[in-house]
Write a structure and sequence with these properties.
The chain is 69% helix and 2% strand. It is mainly α and 185 residues long. The protein has a two-stranded parallel ribbon. InterPro entries: DPS_DNA-bd, DPS_DNA-bd_CS, Ferritin-like, Ferritin-like_SF, Ferritin_DPS_dom.
Length: 185
């Protein structure tokens, strides 16, 4: 069975072509959310150091919320007549970002890297919100709610990285490895 983004039917008020466009957007969001929840769990398992318990306990509610977001995205795609691809192979084949590269590391290092991850997810989500909004307000609304939550999670991360002067210790790091290094040095 071949998976395709153009459905045979969709919700009232949208054409199948519009639904297909939304399903493609939602599929990439599903991949990003599945990747993010696995990355967050990886951080949860591999964080060490004096801030261990604060970060360890901060991450699990984020994992749970991101998993719920993925479910909402997949269910919206189904409502539009689509089929969500949630397998690891589909995620890896479609993603446009690199795998998380930090292993066992200091909590602040992981938070520096996670800030870069959240920036990428949020920037992509903002583009998805704009694209969805041009077609369907219901899908746009779903994504806006997720954007709000993800921005709050990034704020939680950044609160650990902020200096008394109001700047981030990670500065202008472009990669998670660079951000992890800057966060602890």
């Amino acid at each position: 069975m071949t998976l395709q983004s153009t459905p045979k039917y969709t919700v009232p008020g949208l054409t199948v072509d519009q639904a297909g466009e939304l399903i493609e957007i939602l599929q990439m969001r599903l991949h990003a959310l599945n990747d993010l929840h696995l990355t967050l769990k990886h951080v949860h398992w591999n964080v060490v150091g004096p801030h261990f318990i604060a970060v360890h306990e901060m991450i699990d509610p984020q994992v749970d919320k991101v998993r719920a977001m993925a479910d909402d995205v997949a269910e919206r795609a189904a409502a539009l007549g689509g089929v969500s691809q949630g397998t690891p192979g589909a995620l890896v084949a479609a993603r446009t970002w690199q795998d998380y590269s930090v292993g066992r590391a200091d909590a602040i290092a992981h938070l520096g890297a996670l800030d870069v991850v959240y920036t990428g997810v949020i920037e992509d989500l903002r583009r998805a919100v704009a694209a969805a909004g041009a077609v369907d307000t219901a899908t746009e609304d779903l994504l806006i709610g997720q954007l709000r939550d993800l921005e709050q999670f990034q704020w939680f991360v950044r609160a650990h990285l902020e200096t008394a002067g109001g700047s981030l210790r990670t500065g202008s790091a472009d990669t998670e490895a660079e951000a992890a290094h800057k966060a602890v040095n």
